Description:
Number of domains: 5
Keywords: Hydrolase
Distance between the termini: 113 Å
InterPro entries: Bact_Sigma-Reg (IPR052016), GAF (IPR003018), GAF-like_dom_sf (IPR029016), HATPase_C_sf (IPR036890), HATPase_dom (IPR003594), PAS (IPR000014), PAS-like_dom_sf (IPR035965), PAS_fold (IPR013767)
Pfam families: GAF, GAF_3, HATPase_c_2, PAS, SpoIIE
Largest sheet: 6 strands, antiparallel
Radius of gyration: 42 Å
Domain PAS: 160-192
GO molecular function: phosphatase activity
Amino acid sequence: xxxxxxxxxxxxxxRSVASARAFVRDTLQGWGFTDVVDDAVVLTSELxxxxxxxxxxxxDVACMRTDTGVRxxxxxxxxxxxxxxxxxxxxxxxxxxEGGRGLLLCAALASxxxxxxxxxxxQVWFQLDLPDRPAGxxxxxxxxxxxxxxxxxxxxxxxxxxxxxxxGISSWNEDAQDLFGxxxxxxxxxxxxxxxxxxxxxxxxTGIVEALQLSRxxxxxxxxxxxxxxxxxxxxxxxxxxxxxxxxTVCLLVRDHERAVLQTPSRAPASDRHTASERGSATDAFxxxxxxxxxxxxxxxxxxxxxxxxxxxxxDSAYLLLATDDExxxxxxxxxxxxxxxxxxxxxxxxxGSGRYGSARMPAVHEDLSAVPxxxxxxxxxxxxxxVTVPLKVEGRLTGSLGVAAEAPGRYSNEEAxxxxxxxxxxxxAVESARLTELERLRRGSLSFLVEASDLLAGxxxxxxxxxxxxxxxxxxxxxWCAVYTIADPASEPELSYVLHEDEDRIDGLKALLAKVDxxxxxxxxxAQVWTAPAHAAHAAALRxxxxxxxxxxxxxxxxxxxTALATASAVGGETVVLPLVARNRVIGMxxxxxxxxxxxxxxxLELAEDLSRRAALALDNARLYSERTAISQSLQRxxxxxxxxxxxxxxxxxxxxxAGEGNEVGGDFYDLFPIRDxxxxxAIGDVCGTGPEAAAVTGLARHALRLLAREGxxxxxVLERLNAAILDEGARxxxxxxxxxxxxxxxxxSATLKIVCAGHPLPLRLRQTGDVEAAAxxxxxxxxxxxxxxYEQTVSLAPGDVLLCVTDGVTERREGTRMLGDDGLxxxxxxxxxxxxxxxxxxxxxxxxxxxxxxxxxxxxILAMRVPEPQLEPQTT
Length: 878
């Protein structure tokens, strides 16, 4: 009778064989069938290989739990491919032939097996019966003397944590509170990922989220306690389903050195179960875990390697180092039983010498490290006394180093070194293959990251936005937190300009901490430099806070609580590096990247950050130059416009100006209104041909010349004729200029008199109280073309209620496809403005121009409206 079933489908690719093995192993371990796991994995591997490699189709794998054992079915979708049986009777060919080997193994290992055909697929199944054993016995080990038993604390604490289907903590027992310092109220509902220090690189292997989805999982990781320290633990995860059918995961955790309480004993393969020698048993143990992680799961492979190596030699700790690309340094990639500070991505040089790793290229045994201090820098101040190390080599090239250490001296001899070397030789090729796969994936990801970063940085010239982009691209992809310092000039001190943390609640505390620390020294040396000041300051602050909370410090308590200080110390207490931001041979700032407590940067991440810093520095410097240029340009542009308009007695005046183009305050259009003498005012509105500095130069010349000449007593025609001569004197820098210039005299009777000269400019329009609109002047030649101009002025009278509207061609030439607003369209708009103030008239005209087309205006616009208001009626008295 089938009591449980699990099924999965694997694509016809090579890595599916390993994935299928892992699926069967995890499923059967989750059911507690450890006695048949190895046989089931071997048979599944052969049958799935037959399906995905030889048949070239997807493989359907199903595991079924029965009352007496387990049944595994492997099907492919190539039914016409016959099982390689001989026609006369059921006999197999030679075991050395390629076909039929899986069926030969089925016959040898399975209790029952068979082949079934359907119209769409072929299915091979096998049944493995559980061995008879006394009730209540799952696995057993030999009796050991008391001195050989694992060492524990006075009381072993097993934390029981239940995780819901969304990854949130739903149950937290008393032992969990004792181990990690958090009460159930503090953690319930929060994600386990907020507390777990997972030892694997995100994105390159199984992470904690994936591990929680497996039916069963065992391994080591860390839990960040309430004091900010990472506590190494050994965990056993079991996925269960409650009465309502909702899945959850039960996690049992003990201190890592107490792992014997939870760890499932390894069992040798069936074929060698009764004949394995001492060295063979070690080899078999390695063969078991080599097939468990996926082929490209480097972190999982390394972590299993160090755990098996430690157990194989009965050590207290183990570690594995991988060589960097240039083979000059070794990088910590996996460890067990060591302080968390010695775990991920710490680096030591390979060659012998002070503070170096002197035994990487050859097997070595150190009976007592206290006699040779510094021989293995990774083990300094860890309490380890004896160690055996062996190299990982592929084709004679050093690719890494594997070591096992013990707290007691004299634990290891050459015999253990040979056993460990034999196991390392068996794993070296798999490690190197997975390492190269990871490097290739990292390089491809780095290229994509840099391309995207370059696009984002090139998309803005705003300094503040560039700083924000720099930080957001590094957190959390490259680092846990980031701070950007900027340097205004070589004589200035670095200034903290932007701070970002992956946890937004910690940004303020991090910013306050960095504000109290002297900024890093600006250096031009390329590459990342380690900066220890933030970690020291964070730990010092956490210590002071802890002493105050215990009443051992001064009576002045900090503004923040102990939890905030400890959280900041945990967030900043890891490795911190500084990369200079160098642009155009000048240091313009520093990019600071940090990790949480006891974590290091891997070399590939630092190289990627260095590439990013070069691009970010150039983008930041470009933003600075653009800001400076824009500030200078806007300052010059503002000088081309009148600072303010004078009040004209008896006349309402309104000006609206819009310069086309981003960052422009002034274009080729300009306007002016200024007093000439008592009772007389000059006004002008013009348009210089072209854009840019040349047009701006003519604009400045025209505006200042108009004021000067008018105040010298020249009339309108004489003013424009002299301005025309000045423009022509500019030679190649001269520009055509259309200009409407006039003089305004308010009258005592409430009207206003104007004398106007329109030199090539759109004609001014007069709106009467009756709603009639007419041109108020005649067109005359524009300026900057001919030497001799004969201009004349025309007199216009504005009665109370009349409006004079002057615009540049950016208004009349507003386009939408083939349509244009034109003079007639402007007249239609002005006709609707009867009775409006000058401000309302200018605003209505601008609104009509903006609504005429959906696209932004491509030309400058200036609107000048003057209106003589109606006299106010005196209130009647009775």
